[in-house]
Amino acid sequence: MTELTLHGVSVSLGRGDARTPVLRAVDATCAPGVLTALVGPSGSGKSTLLAVAGALLRPDEGRVLLGGTDLAALTDAERARVRRERVGYVFQSGNLLGGLTAVEQLLAAASVAGRPARRLRAAAESALAEVGLAHRLHHRADRLSGGERQRTALARALFLEPDLLLIDEPTAAVDRTQAAALTALIATTAKQRGCATLVATHDPVVAEAAGATIAR
Ligand SMILES: Nc1ncnc2c1ncn2[C@@H]1O[C@H](COP(=O)(O)OP(=O)(O)OP(=O)(O)O)[C@@H](O)[C@H]1O
């Protein structure tokens, strides 16, 4: 089981005169098996922190430890590999490929991660069933609702069994009933799989269900 820890992480964004400090000497921990809520006002740096945690962005200072690996010290190629093999990232938009069906989204991601996609079809279908999409397996992404797209993205991330799951605003596009169900699903899955799960959110439903909180 893998823990994520940030030690003294600082990030500034923008160029020249527009360069702005966004994260200043941040220390934070996200334990395996726990849904950790990342909360704070708009513009406080939640998405930036997710990007640093997911090896998308290298901090200017500090260490980002995923298990024993300092993501801040890796080369670009090594960080790309960590992203492919160890991190599941669910963006607010879902980030799906419009022309592919829900099942194909998962199989394409498996293929990119170097897994034998042809042998994984049944597992992909059951990952989608787990997020309540058994009836949408063969719908193209551009014909899914916003909430269904995000659940497909969640199934895709979980399907690859990441050490670290990063989710940006999972409940922004769903109604209150679905928000509670989706939050419960994320918390249960984190616990069952022992996956460190960091969720940026403005939603009190998510914050209340979380086992830990990082406040920005
Ligand atoms: N490329 C950039 N150049 C300069 N400033 C940036 C850049 N990207 C983001 N910022 C600034 O960094 C700050 C943090 O942004 P970030 O998206 O991490 O906040 P957030 O907490 O996720 O916000 P929200 O809740 O609205 O999504 C904001 O003030 C934003 O304007």
From TrEMBL:
The keyword Cell membrane does not apply. PROSITE patterns: ABC_TRANSPORTER_2. Keywords: ATP-binding, Nucleotide-binding. InterPro entries: AAA+_ATPase (IPR003593), ABC_transporter-like_ATP-bd (IPR003439), ABC_transpr_LolD-like (IPR015854), P-loop_NTPase (IPR027417). The keyword ATP-binding applies. It holds the Pfam family ABC_tran. One of its GO terms (molecular function) is ATP hydrolysis activity. GO terms for cellular component: plasma membrane. Residues 4-214 form the ABC transporter domain. It comes from the Bacteria. This is Putative ABC transporter ATP-binding protein.
